[in-house]
Amino acid sequence: MKKIIIVALVAVFFVECTTVPITGRKRIKPVNDENVLPASFAQYKGFLEKNKLSEDKKATQQIKEIGAKISKAVDHFMRNNGMQKEADSYRWEFNLVEDKTVNAWALPGGKVVFYTGILPICDNEDGIAAVMGHEVAHAFAKHGQERMRQGQMQAIGGIAVAIGTSGKSEDTQKIWNTVYGIGSNVGMLAYSREHEAEADKLGLVFMIMAGYNGEEAAEVWVRMSKKAKGKKVPQILSTHPSNESRIKALKDYLPEAKRLAAQFNAQEK
C-alpha cells in the first residue's frame, strides 16, 4: 500500500493546473493542441464521409449560420483577452447529419455536428443557438483535451494499484482492482457532469453575445425533459446533469450571462 501512495503522490505533484476562461474553474492542464487537433480534424472528416449529411438545405444553412455567429463571438472574446494563438488554432465547422438520434457534439478544435433528431427539441432559432453555444463551449473550454489528460492520470492510478498489490494474493488484487475500477469510472462520470454544467454556462454567455435569446436555453431542457417521458438515470451515475437541475442552473445563471455578454461585446474589437 505504501507503494500505491508514493506513486499517486508523485503523479499529483507533477500535475500542472490551468484556469478555464470566464468560469475561472481550476483544471488539470489539457493535452496540448498539437497532439490532439490533427487527429480530431481527421476523425471529423472520416465521420462526415461515413454519415449522410442532411438534404434539408434550409435547416443545414441555419445550422451553419448560427454556428458561424456564435464561433465569431467566441473568436472575438479570445482575441480581446490574450488568446490570439488559441483563436488561430480553431477550424470551426458546422454540419447537420441525417440521424433521428437526439444529439449534437463537438470535437476539439471547433468541429461540430448536429443530428436532425435534435431539431424538434431545439424548436426554433434560439433553441438551436442554445445547443450550439453549449457545443462550441466544449471546444472553447478544451473539455476533450482535459478528459484526455484525466485518462492519462487514470492510467497512472491503475499502474499504482498494480504495483501496490504485486505479491499479494489473487483475491486481494481482484478486490483492489474492482474498487479502483468503480471509483475511477464514477469519477470520470462526475468529471463529465462538471464539463456539461460548465458548457451550459459558457454556452449561455456565447449565444447571448451572438444576439440570441438566452431564456430559450432553459426551455430546450424543458422540452428535453418532456421528450424523456419521465425516464430518468440517477444523476450520480449519469454523464449529464439531470434535466431539472440543468433548467434551474440555466435560469439562475441567466442574469450573470447577460452581464458578461454585454461586457465582452463592449470590448474594443
Automatic annotation (TrEMBL):
Gene3D superfamilies: Metalloproteases ('zincins'), catalytic domain. Binds 1 zinc ion per subunit. Residues 69-252 form the Peptidase M48 domain. Coiled coil: none annotated. Signal peptide: none annotated. Belongs to the peptidase M48 family. Its cofactor is Zn(2+). Keywords: Hydrolase, Metal-binding, Metalloprotease, Protease, Zinc. This is M48 family metallopeptidase. Transmembrane segments: none annotated. Pfam families: Peptidase_M48.
